[in-house]
């Protein structure tokens, strides 16, 4: 759901980005029925989504790595320590991005992400408990809807600020 929402919001901002989804476990089940239904409610079709496990190469080439939980970003950071400053909880990125403000016209996406990362307190775990978004897999459709609503809000904010739009 997060990848579909982020790609959608970046496209709305006119940002040409390649958004990829990868999980921290080697599941090969595709999008769940509830995820497909909820994304259809958002006007997005993820029925062809296939799961794949996060690889080191994915992290090496990424300008930005997002996870929903601290466990997700801890795994990404262990697999590629070089990606640490580009790795965020979705909620953390939204919160810090609001504090940093919009990307300037002279600033690359990577520079803006570096500026956001610089807002992290030193010597503290990444993110706060409130920045985590529980994975809804195995839960009912209402949990999926609540998760999608939160992801939509945070990723819409990130895309707007990355697109240089002031909120």
Which properties best describe this structure?
167 residues, Rossmann fold, 7 helices, 46% helix, globular
Report on this model:
It is a single chain. The chain is mostly helical. The protein has one domain: Response regulator (Rossmann fold), CATH 3.40.50.2300. Helix content is about 45%, strand content about 5%. The protein is built from 7 helices and 2 strands; from the N terminus they run H-H-H-E-H-E-H-H-H. It has helices at about 1-10, 35-40, 55-60, 70-80, 90-100, 110-115, 140-160; strands at about 65, 85-90. Strands 1-2 form a two-stranded parallel ribbon. Helix 2 (about 35-40) crosses helix 7 (about 140-160) and helix 5 runs parallel beside helix 7 (about 140-160). The chain is globular and about 40 Å long. The chain starts with a helix and ends in a 5-residue tail after the last helix.
Q: Please, what is the oligomeric state?
A: single chain
What about the largest sheet? 2 strands, parallel
Report the end-to-end length measured between terminal Cα atoms: 24 Å
CATH class: Alpha Beta
Find the CATH superfamily.
Answer: Response regulator
CATH topology (fold) name: Rossmann fold
Q: State the CATH architecture.
A: 3-Layer(aba) Sandwich
């Amino acid at each position: 759901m997060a990848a579909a929402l982020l790609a959608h919001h970046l496209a709305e901002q006119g940002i040409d980005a390649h958004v990829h989804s990868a999980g921290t476990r080697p599941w090969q089940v595709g999008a769940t029925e509830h995820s497909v239904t909820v994304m259809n409610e958002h006007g997005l079709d993820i029925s062809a989504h296939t799961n794949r496990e996060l690889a080191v190469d994915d992290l090496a080439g990424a300008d930005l790595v997002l996870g929903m939980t601290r466990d997700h970003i801890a795994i990404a950071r262990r697999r590629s320590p070089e990606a640490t400053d580009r790795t965020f909880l979705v909620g953390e990125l939204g919160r810090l991005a609001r504090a940093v403000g919009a990307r300037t016209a002279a600033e690359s996406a990577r520079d803006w992400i570096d500026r956001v990362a610089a807002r992290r307190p030193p010597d503290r775990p990444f993110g706060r408990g409130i920045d985590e978004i529980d994975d809804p897999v195995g839960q009912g459709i209402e949990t999926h809807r609540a998760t999608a609503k939160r992801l939509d809000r945070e990723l819409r904010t990130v895309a707007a600020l990355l697109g240089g739009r002031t909120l």
